[in-house]
Design brief:
The chain is of the alpha/beta class. The protein has 15 helices and twelve strands. It has two domains: 11-29 and 270-360, Aspartate Aminotransferase, domain 1 (Alpha-Beta Complex), CATH 3.90.1150; 34-266, Type I PLP-dependent aspartate aminotransferase-like (Major domain) (Aspartate Aminotransferase, domain 2), CATH 3.40.640.10. Helices cover 41% and strands 14% of the residues. The strands form three sheets. Strands 2-8-7-6-5-3-4 form a seven-stranded mixed beta sheet, with helices on both faces. It has a three-stranded antiparallel beta sheet with strand order 9-12-11, covered by helices on one side. A hairpin with a 4-residue loop joins strand 11 and strand 12 (335-339). The chain is globular.
């Protein structure tokens, strides 16, 4: 029997490094606030599979009210919320139209295929924002040997396009025309509160013409876990069965929902700070040699910038940033992504800019 030598325990060192680093990788890295932690510790709970968790019930009722919908359901993740909606809206053998950088297409483990039996009909759109004219051209003709279009899925804000926001008229036009064509519209609104903040409108108004909306309580809203799916009562009743099929039935989930209630009620009010910090970063980056970004296109808390002018790829660039205590990641070999959130301050953004400038000027 081979003897295995004991390895040094570096977990504490790694954790310490992560805690002290300036983390711009995503707004998913946020930690719950002290108020959230207290609420979680004191949450009134019951068995949610029986519908008996009062804190989950309050969260679902409040989410429905905020979005002007009949009902809502609490799910562990945004990916699950999207998968549930797609399953209900479609049937096997159909196509789903979405933008080619969309989250449901690229980052959800092909669940729409494996669970719902659907294909994606991707469309490349400027800034990730589809128009009805583009969608209309890709709707399948009514020919029996063609996979028929079953759903239009939109993403607002659009993550990999740099946190872009649908103009309200454009979003509403897509929904109206899709409904005229007999097609439902699902909104992946993981960061819909960021979009609403950028538009200066309530989320109920921003999303009212979509048939279903998924939004995350984590990310910019800061809850440690959880997302919501809002729609009609009939739709959410079906969603409970589909959630169970996906393994998403939770028991004393009020411990999580308690943090979600604070995220929903209080955290949207501070999102403008994240947007201002992102614009500050973008303006600073635009002045750095080798970096290409248009600050005017940074509408929310996500910025994507091109580093080809530096002569480095994003893997090398990320390593150099990490050596300067800044965590960020590339979305491909040429483009880096920074995401601002409640756990990075303006001073942190200034420090990140200094790190990027030093790297691009060869002071690494």
């Amino acid at each position: 029997m081979e003897t295995k030598l004991a390895q040094p325990d570096t977990s504490q060192q790694s954790a310490k490094k992560t805690l002290t680093a300036l983390d711009f990788r995503s707004d998913t890295v946020t930690r719950p606030t002290p108020e959230m932690r207290r609420a979680m510790a004191e949450a009134e709970v019951g068995d949610d599979v029986y519908g008996e968790d009062p804190t989950v019930n309050r969260l679902e009722e409040r989410a429905a009210e905020v979005f002007g919908r009949e009902a809502a359901i609490f799910v562990p993740t945004g990916t699950m919320g999207n998968a549930i909606a797609i399953k209900i809206h479609t049937h096997h053998g159909q196509e789903i139209i979405c933008e080619e950088r969309g989250h449901i297409f690229n980052y959800e483990m092909a669940t729409l295929a494996t669970f719902s039996g659907c294909l994606v009909r991707p469309i490349c759109a400027e800034d990730g924002l589809l128009t009805w004219a583009e969608i209309k051209k890709r709707i399948a003709p009514g020919i029996y040997y063609k996979a028929q279009t079953g759903l239009v899925s939109l993403e607002n804000t659009h993550n990999m396009a740099g946190g872009t926001v649908y103009p309200q008229a454009q979003f509403d036009d897509i929904c109206d025309r899709a409904h005229e064509a007999g097609l439902p519209v699902h909104l992946d609104g993981a960061r819909i509160f960021n979009a609403a903040t950028a538009l200066g409108k309530p989320v109920a108004e921003v999303t009212r013409k979509a048939d279903s909306v998924m939004f995350c309580l984590s990310k910019g809203l800061g809850a440690p876990v959880g997302s919501m799916l809002v729609a009609s009562k009939a739709f959410i009743l079906k969603a409970r069965a589909v959630r169970k099929a996906l393994g998403g039935g939770m028991r004393q989930a009020g411990i999580l929902a308690a943090a979600g209630l604070i995220a929903l009620e209080k955290m949207p009010l501070r999102l403008k700070e994240d947007h201002d910090n992102a614009r500050f970063l973008a303006e600073g980056l635009s002045r750095v040699r080798g970096i290409k970004i248009d600050p005017k296109k940074v509408a929310t808390n996500i910025l994507v910038f091109d580093i080809t002018g530096t002569g480095m790829n994003t893997a090398d660039f990320s390593q150099k940033l990490a050596a300067k205590n800044v965590l960020a990641a590339g979305i491909n070999a040429e483009q880096m992504r920074f995401v601002t959130h409640m756990d990075v301050s303006r001073a942190d953004c200034e420090a990140a800019l200094e790190a990027v400038t030093a790297i691009c000027h060869g002071n690494n």
